[in-house]
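Handoff note, outgoing to incoming analyst
You'll be picking up this chain. Sequence as last confirmed:
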Amino acid sequence: QETVTGLFSKDCILPCPFPPGDDEVIYWKKGNKNVHSYYYQRDQLARQDPDYRHRTHLFQENIPSGNASLKLSNLTVTDEGPYNCYVGTQQTKTEVEVTLRVRVSSYYALEYQKTDTERMLKCYAFLTYPAPHISWVQGNTSIQEIDREETRDGVLYSLRSDQNIINTADPYYCLIHLPHEEWAAEWKMQDQLSNVEGSSTAIPCEYSNNTTNIEGFSVVWTLNRNAVISVLASFNGTSHSYQPRVQINPNDFSLMLRDLTANDSGEYLCNISTPHYTKLTVRTLQV
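Most recent structure output, in case you need it:
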């Protein structure tokens, strides 16, 4: 028995080798569904299950050499499960079982918003299957979300869950659970920094050493000033600056600011992300 993993909406091949012989009869089944049939040297699709219409393909030029593999197109989550390939020839009978897993390319995000009156977190799960379970923790206490919005795209789910930040001394965590995947995000407020005009400063960003060499590691610095958010700099293997007087230190991902002015005052947000974890660190700079 073999397991094949395919990507949602893409194609995959379910293998079925057999000893070559004469007058091949090929049946692919999933439970009691007829997925694909072949005999008399051609496809026989009159009794094919409608779920598989126009989505199956045998490599007919390779059947004489013992290859009854099935190409399945436009994968969907209901395609998951065990498939049986039966091949009969005048000489032998062969049965092969293949289990198909369908992976969905889901992604996740934590967004921090600040207005004059409140601070808020929005936790997102995009294009998951099944529906994700989102939970919140403040400090080390579970808390309820204040709002949520769910949308469907075919069989896939997208979900947004909102949380108010009541106490900036506490870290806040958003946790997303799925049967095959988990994702976590953390928000944390650091002590205020004060500097004088014309000076330089480095705003540190918290991260753990073991995350920096993970594929998909990235750092983004943004400034929230009077509810206007501007992207300052980023790092994803190389450093990029999007504003003058701003640089990201590639060694510790701190944000270096030169020639400070009063307009540089505001909340600085460092977003460190890997595919399964995001950490948002906020610091207020007063110039």
